[in-house]
Amino acid sequence: MRANFALGFLISTCAFGQIAVQVGGKPVGTANTINFTNAAGASASGILHSCTPREGRIDCTASYNTAFIASHDTIHENENYCSSTNGTSAYTCKLPFKSLTAYRAGMTFLLSTDATCSSSCTLNIDGAGIVSVKRPDGTTDPGGAIVKGQPQWIFYDGKVFRLMATSGAPVVAETPSFADQRGDVRARRVMGAMDTMPYASSITLDVTAGDLHKTTTSNNIGNASLDAATAGLAGQHMWIIIANDQISAKTITFGPHLRSAGPLTGTAGKAATLHFISDGTGWYEVARTLGL
């Protein structure tokens, strides 16, 4: 009988015993049950606990010190895949997991579009604002460097979005072309201006007026001399068309800036063409065609 009473006393004492709980050396309460909610264990690397007495127990919840452990928002603030599907070069997109509230310098995004940016384009992410997209220099429009269906890395420099992988790298468009790796210029069509020169006994050609120059002889004036106003720029090309009047053949001589193959004698009612190239000190005749 005494043994049973002693056992019952021990059981009741343990069942209703109180445990003092402290956090950081400060008492938070006593209870016979401690409930650690989502506890990951204490660590000097940044794990913290916060405990609160609640209905006969103490709840301790784990947290972390952001001075040691960076959050997702601190590291990137969002997932950075931006897919524009509006069919225009005024690109818009929504980030897949967390909406962007404002742009900050240094943010990077992977931009995928369903429209090629053939000249200029803009981007608006999560309605944070319309921002121009430029090449790596921050001023030049993409001009075909963004091709639909081909993702491009971009970053925000505080003013515009800059492409990160177009300088010196191939850019394959819908009609294949390539980046300007050698300083060449590729274009579907480049048309130089044509300069029509009044015919006179002495003609001075303005090399800044275009790459193609044309004059038609006049029987009243007769033969003429032709010279360029300047020696031109090294590597500059120009073409000259001389149309002879219907009355009689006219002879054209050339001045010191035009280093030709000799005087040009035309044919009545026919035209001739001449091709010159400059080395910076003068224009050298490359070719001529008569009787056209």
Textual characterization of the structure:
By secondary structure, the protein is mainly beta. It has three domains: 18-69, no CATH class; 75-163, no CATH class; 194-289, Jelly Rolls. 6% of the residues lie in helices and 38% in strands. The protein is built from two helices and 22 strands. A hairpin with a 4-residue loop joins strand 11 and strand 12. The chain starts with a helix and ends with a strand.
Highlighted features:
292 residues; mainly beta; Jelly Rolls; 3 domains; six-stranded mixed β-sheet; 2 helices
Q: Quickly name the level 1 CATH class of the largest domain.
A: Mainly Beta
**Order of strands in the sheet with most strands:** 6-8-11-12-10-9-7
Tell me what portion of residues adopts beta-strand conformation: 35-45%
Helix content: under 10%
**How many individual helices?**
2
Supply the CATH architecture of the largest domain. Sandwich
Using only CA atoms, what is the Rg? 41 Å
What is the rounded distance between the termini? 137 Å
Shape call: rod-shaped
* Oligomer class: single chain
Runs with pLDDT <50, length 5+? 1-15, 38-43, 167-178
Instruction: Characterize the largest beta sheet: strand count, sense, and whether it forms a barrel.
Output: 7 strands, mixed
Mean pLDDT score: 81
Assign the structural class, choosing from mainly alpha, mainly beta, alpha/beta, alpha+beta, or little secondary structure.
Answer: mainly beta
Order of helices and strands: HEEEEEHEEEEEEEEEEEEEEEEE
Chain-wise SSE layout:
Layout: H1 2-15, E1 19-23, E2 26-31, E3 33-37, E4 47-54, E5 57-64, H2 72-75, E6 81-84, E7 90-93, E8 108-113, E9 121-125, E10 130-134, E11 152-156, E12 161-163, E13 194-196, E14 202-205, E15 212-216, E16 224-228, E17 237-243, E18 251-254, E19 258-259, E20 264-265, E21 271-278, E22 283-289
Parallel strand pairs: 3-5, 6-8, 7-9, 10-12, 13-15, 14-16, 15-17, 16-18, 19-22
Antiparallel strand pairs: 1-2, 4-5, 8-11, 9-10, 11-12, 17-21, 18-20, 21-22
